[in-house]
Amino acid sequence: MLQKKLTKVGNSYALILDKPLMDMAGISVNEPVAVYSDGHGLVVVPVSGMVRDFDGAKAHVFEHHEDLLRRLAK
What we know:
With 74 residues, this protein is an alpha+beta fold. The chain is built from three helices and four strands. It has a two-stranded antiparallel sheet with strand order 1-2. A two-stranded antiparallel sheet has the order 3-4.
């Protein structure tokens, strides 16, 4: 676990991510990230990873609930 401090930038605060931490998280410079709360803290993920997760979740739903989705579509 790493401990980091927030840095004041104008009227906001920034969390400076070191290169090894960005590599570990799979985040590149200038890559869009999504930030959300999981109820215990903040989660930062590359947006491209969220798209992959969404596509996987969508495939799972279609695979396991195809009959229900076809009935609802009628």
